Amino acid sequence: MSNWNPQNSDPVTRGLMSGFPPARDKTIRPEGGELGGNSFPNTRWAFSHQRELKPTATVRRGPAAPSALPHKLRDDIDAVAFTTMEGEQTTWGASIEALYTDGIVILHRGSIVYETYRGALSADLPHIAFSVTKSFVGLIAATLAHEGVIDTAAPVARYLPELAKSAFADATVRQVMDMTTGVKYSENYTDPLAEVRTYGIAAGYSKPPEGYTGPDSIASFLATLPKQGEHGAGFTYKTCNTEVLAWLIQRVTGKPMPQLISERIWQKLGMEEDGYLHVDPVGMAACGGGLNLSLRDLARFGEMMRNRGQYNGQQIVPATVVDDIAGGARKEDFAKAGYATMPGWSYRSQWWVSHDDLNAYTARGIHGQVCWIAPKAEVVIARFASHPVAANGNSILDKVSLPAYAAVAKHLMR
Amino acid sequence: MSNWNPQNSDPVTRGLMSGFPPARDKTIRPEGGELGGNSFPNTRWAFSHQRELKPTATVRRGPAAPSALPHKLRDDIDAVAFTTMEGEQTTWGASIEALYTDGIVILHRGSIVYETYRGALSADLPHIAFSVTKSFVGLIAATLAHEGVIDTAAPVARYLPELAKSAFADATVRQVMDMTTGVKYSENYTDPLAEVRTYGIAAGYSKPPEGYTGPDSIASFLATLPKQGEHGAGFTYKTCNTEVLAWLIQRVTGKPMPQLISERIWQKLGMEEDGYLHVDPVGMAACGGGLNLSLRDLARFGEMMRNRGQYNGQQIVPATVVDDIAGGARKEDFAKAGYATMPGWSYRSQWWVSHDDLNAYTARGIHGQVCWIAPKAEVVIARFASHPVAANGNSILDKVSLPAYAAVAKHLMR
Lengths: 414, 414
Fold this sequence. Notes:
four-stranded antiparallel β-sheet, about 30% helix
């Protein structure tokens, strides 16, 4: 990606997928290779058009008109100045361009004060949220625990006997929710031998290599994962935990995840667009990162969390469930993961909790997806991006965007 | 399919795709083979879940609440008796079961008087409409001609120079619309050498066989079709005509078909669910048969046609455009195609016109999809099915369903 920058990688400028049919060298394909939708800079188009490349299942919004989301746009946001974690002076406006942003919505006290779409994204298009998906799953799991439908102290194998020989057999549901399981699974996208690669194939994100005989579904992949270390020893970010949690929820409720998210979140929030989930080769939703939704709908979700579960005139999830998430988990557990950009944070029920002066907590996904909630500032920031670098954590993304969010929130508090 | 019947092929009874994950032998796969979604009886599930098996593009309904579709259910429909074209006495209720019906909505004077869903279908699920898709494309083409955007007397190559060496070079737009072109293309699904097979691969419906080097997109396939016979010599049903028409419309308007259908039909009619179109390997919509929509939304579309383009408080297409379709074309042209079940019919702008005593005309798709409009009876019948036999025309489907529709309409007229 050496010669690419945010400007020359813009999919509209490049003419990707324009014309009938698009030119051969401008046609994004589902498969890998130079024109594959999984490779940067093709991702700049593909992240807003996942359903045109692969099988998906609807997260239905239902027949009602969407809930109100008033615009009170402000023109003073782009000029907000801040210092990055590397000491660079910049502004909000400059930073969103530099971070390959596809769209940002900022809510202040429930109104849209800032909204922008770039490149392939528009207000009506669902964009892949990647691991922001996990926070939807975690919220539903926490709600089901509150309802007594699942017991977070129970071992996973009580609900999923298929995992009795895997690492998860004796992990508790809570350990899976908080990602403190001991399981051999590397999330390192730059390591070709990392388990996340096999996960990608099993989940149907990547084409299997010639002669592949490994697992061909998320469930069968999870059953292969052996234990490594001890459960409860500390936080390590492993997507397999979310897939276990999602499978467990579906098993217990007897409902597929697209339906659960529709019934418990989409229809109640009054979402503006249907969302959708990527499905694996046997039709189960990929819940570790497969949700696609519109930016305004992600903002609605964040606003509901900011209001302790209230939105659209109703209590959508119990306030105590939101409080438990916003309150975070043990910082010592989180510290062991060594995220330089997130000192003093914790991870609770698939959410990242800052414990900072804004009480901010966030749903986060690779390549720059975020739903950032700052209760003390009455601010929610929903953002989609197609940054060439996958990782958050210690990356350039966090070093710029975390100070940027805080600066804008504090500016709006004034 | 010798041992299958409407009862034992029911996908719910068979447990297809139930459980998390579904059992191996109950899991429908996108590919061919015993568990392939293209083969009966798997189609009984797959026709209601196309997006979970393949890439698709949204036909967006927009943010508004759906238009009203009042229920005035009647309980006297199932008992309506009629005689099939083969002389058998039966009833409406018995016939819909025998025809592998997935769902039927009957409108009388704009209200739902009958509504049923069976097997894998429910009110909120889009079902594949197959060639009913063509009638949406034909209506938009006729409207664009009315607006002066396309000239139906012009040769196709004026709009699509890529087809200058194909059969379509000197065919007029009208000949394509009415399927009176002379082109070497067999629609015979039971002939392994029929061009419809290559179309299926090029459109991304079927997996290419090992070593396939033929066209890999709908557009590139159309360019390969040579002339056979003369243009204007008579009607022959060939899906390639619709794909040419759809390509031409997209080229002229600069808009992809999913957007055109959304803007001109879905949003204006106040549809209840997003629809979607199957897309080919280069992302262009398959317009000969790739539309999926809910049954009520298909009924809304039919009701708009019955009301000469008026629906939801507005004129959605010009009345003269609807009148031209409902008036049909030359019966002599149609007769040459030799459909025993449709004597005296004609084909106009991608619609089948009966010229019968109800002035009925219809959109039709293989395996039993229909939107049947009987202006004189003020009746619209929308139906989805997963009959094992593809063909309409001379098949058992028409021999039962055409008399059934007429009997119910006449019953409602009383």
